[in-house]
UniProtKB/TrEMBL annotation:
Residues 1-73 form the C1q domain. It comes from the Eukaryota. SUPFAM superfamilies: TNF-like. InterPro entries: C1q_dom, Tumour_necrosis_fac-like_dom. This is C1q domain-containing protein. It comes from Pinctada imbricata (Atlantic pearl-oyster). Pfam families: C1q.
């Protein structure tokens, strides 16, 4: 498992300091990793903050394969 932080990855979504969700995946079979995703709809106000944190380090499995998107409707 070259370049990895851990065999497990936890990604948390936060809104203004409150944890809203967690996604979990685990590396399997010599580099094959499960895929996990979440979708959350929020009504945001000016000054609100939304972010992702991982429990394993800067990246899951040591590689920057995480995406975060938002839309203004």
């Amino acid at each position: 498992m070259s370049g990895s932080d851990s065999q497990r990855c936890y990604a948390f979504i936060f809104h203004n300091g409150n944890q809203l969700s967690v996604s979990y995946s685990e590396e399997k079979n010599h580099g094959y990793a499960e895929v996990a995703s979440n979708t959350i709809l929020l009504t945001l106000n000016v000054g609100d903050r939304v972010w992702i944190e991982t429990a394993t380090g800067k990246y899951c499995y040591g590689y920057p394969y995480t995406a975060f998107s938002g839309w203004k409707i």
